[in-house]
Amino acid sequence: MTVRIATWNINSVTARLPKLLEWLESAEPDVLCLQELKCAADAFPFEAVRELGYETAAHGTGRWNGVAVVSRLGLEDVVRDLPGQPGFLAEDALVAAVEPRAIAATCGPVRVWSVYVPNGREVDHAHYRYKLEWLETLRSSVLEDAAGTRPFAVLGDFNIAPTDEDVFDPAAFEGLTHVTPVERAALTALQEAGLQDVVPRPLKYDRPYTYWDYRQLAFPKNRGMRIDLTYGNKAFVDAVKDSYVDREARKGKGTSDHAPVVVDLDI
Hints:
Radius of gyration: 17 Å
Helix content: 10-25%
CATH architecture: 4-Layer Sandwich
Number of helices: 5
Number of strands: 14
Distance between the termini: 5 Å
CATH topology: Deoxyribonuclease I, Chain A
Strand content: 25-35%
Structural class: alpha+beta
Shape: globular
Strand order of the largest sheet: 3-4-2-1-14-13
């Protein structure tokens, strides 16, 4: 059985709906993990996606964040939010809010988490500390599935480049988030928990970047980062027969600033 699983930070599912539907029809993923919906769960375009044969489990509150799992293999055991997921206390808030950044589902033979890891903003910012706490909660949340025999993966926008090879110029990121040793150590902790980074093929270019800023011609100059990641357990990794970044989906006007990452499994 061949199963195609993908992840894509869509950067507003409402604004990118035509792009999403076009991509679902052309790439034909069996499971698609989405991040940064920027819409409430009940505002997700369920019907438009259902017409293409997909069910959707969405988790969002509007404005920012938001995650979903889109599947044509069924959706079972849906879980919204990580167990014990920390919240973020904004400057103008009285209570820390648990943001819609994680959703899990079993889709046929595979279980997945779609995650949108906090950005971190700046190294000395409270959001950075929140990011590290969130990542530790993620690690503890996946231990059981990571050790299991069922193919399992955490896919999404991690807002971390695992190595210096995953950014176009390490010097340009010196002192910034996304590349700090502490953030990268959190990814190492996922590996120690039993998950492996599935690195996609770069195809046309020598680096499999997944994100390019809208500004300063970053995409045509390939000044990107690999921050959209797939971490799978042994059963998942052993089944991988191909993986790639679909750069074509990043081209043109009205696109997300991220490209989909596709993983094909032979189960």
